[in-house]
């Protein structure tokens, strides 16, 4: 290969590497691989400085081919600037389409130790797209051999629609058993005074209270549902728990459907057996 061709190949290698690094960084940003994107962009920036420095050095070596080197130098600069613009456009698109979560800047309140991050199952309703249970943290304390308390916090993806209220519904999974061998009832328990209120970030918190519904519930796995109750249907919910049976044995899915309840999802909360 002629010396000039070898020099041109070397001259193009760094700018092309710069462009490739910034394109990879742009792809990483779009796919939410933030650490990889900044590593690739930083690598591209270093290569860009090296490429420009080498071009300036080559331009000072002599008049031979200086015109072609200068022309190639401008193309190299254009490639580097193009790579930076591609990366910048990807960052801007990422922010517009999926803005940085405010959860990181403003974390939700956490319960006291010991804290467990709950497995969350989301069931976003068709009537309210985008509204779902995003996360939940909880703390269980076993006060005596057969009693326990729960403190819990979480985050909803967006604010509650007008005319709706947010409430917890607690349900013991029938496939699990308490310390006496009794299975969970699978029914829902609701209380009017347990309304969940959200802050501007969709965060919520419920202070520590008795958990399990009865002495000896340890060993059961509970599903801590979060659901919408239409404000106009509060009287319907009140009627469900106005009787001794409704208060002690809870409600089934049909009861809640008649009162217009819409579940957003639930947190899995297992409890330690005796």
TrEMBL record:
Q: Which residues cross the membrane?
A: 12-31, 37-53, 74-97
Please provide the record's keywords in A-Z order: Membrane, Transmembrane, Transmembrane helix
Return the protein name. Uncharacterized protein
